[in-house]
Specification:
It contains 7 helices and 11 strands. By secondary structure, it is an alpha/beta fold. It has 2 domains: 80 residues, Nucleotidyltransferase, domain 5 (2-Layer Sandwich); 149 residues, ATPase, nucleotide binding domain (Nucleotidyltransferase, domain 5, 2-Layer Sandwich), CATH 3.30.420. A 6-stranded mixed sheet has the order 6-9-8-7-10-11, sandwiched between helices. Strands 3-2-1-4-5 form a 5-stranded mixed sheet, sandwiched between helices. α3 crosses α7. It is globular. The two termini are 19 Å apart.
């Protein structure tokens, strides 16, 4: 079985594939100084399926060595770490290519493979990333903004008295507490941010692109905006499986 691993800034996600079927998922917080022994303690007992291959996407270099050692020691596999120079089947216009988050490349590759081009790929996580693929399968560029949790943390760290709040949608826009006011400002403000950005991106790209969203806040955003067509919570893990399958076929 294939183990697909997504090392993100906030969480590390694991997906076990039996052929094309995702049979098991696990998510753990990203700990930048975690060791291979620590990964074995946290992950090893939870993934009981036999692993015969592994593929990893990472935007956290500090974790990569421990992850590679964990996969080699615990499962006896040499993991493939996806590089930006991999064949994603796209003409990529980002410059320099080395600075693009591998997760963004895997997500766009996965979205085009699953839903076709043109498309706009939104990932709602630690950061909001929006990537644009035109009808010629050219990754023309994109946008980056802070994620909602990042905005909440920034208010806490850059002010003396404001608390950090849990991201949830208040029932009413106008709030009567400081925590509620922060929640309302961030959440309702974010709806407006996403709505306007996607309208502008669609106007610029033309060609009626599908908008594919993934990440922890994707469903909340879709329920409160009008621009998102598809929610795919496994977009990146599926992209890793497709990349692995593609490489095996070469």
């Amino acid at each position: 079985m294939l183990l697909a691993v997504d090392i993100g800034n906030s969480n590390i996600k694991f997906g076990v594939y039996d052929g094309e079927i995702l049979t098991f998922k696990l998510s753990i917080p990203t700990i930048r100084d975690i060791s291979s022994t620590g990964l074995i303690k946290v992950v090893g007992t939870k993934i009981a399926q036999p692993v015969t291959a592994a593929i990893v996407s990472s935007v956290v270099p500090e974790v990569e060595s421990a992850m590679g050692e964990f996969l080699a020691v615990h499962y006896g596999v040499v993991a493939v770490f996806v590089e930006n120079e991999a064949d994603f089947g796209l003409a990529i216009k980002y410059e320099p290519l080395a600075e693009v988050g591998t997760d963004r490349l895997v997500n766009t590759f996965s979205a085009v493979a699953k839903y076709g081009a043109p498309c706009i790929v939104c990932s709602f996580g630690t950061a909001l990333t929006i990537d644009v693929v035109n009808k010629y399968k050219v990754l023309t560029g994109g946008l980056i903004a802070p994620g909602m949790n990042t905005l909440a943390a920034a208010l806490k760290t850059t002010t003396s008295k404001l608390p950090e709040v849990k991201i949830q949608k208040p029932a009413e826009l106008i709030q009567r507490t400081t925590a509620g006011s922060i929640q309302s400002g961030i959440v309702y403000g974010y709806f407006g941010l996403v709505e306007e950005l996607l309208k502008r991106v669609k106007a610029e790209i033309g060609d009626s692109p599908k908008v594919v969203a993934t990440g922890g806040f994707a469903l909340l955003i879709r329920e409160n905006t009008t621009q998102i067509d598809i929610i795919d919570e496994n977009l990146l893990l599926d992209g890793l499986r497709l990349l692995h399958s593609q490489n095996q076929a070469v």
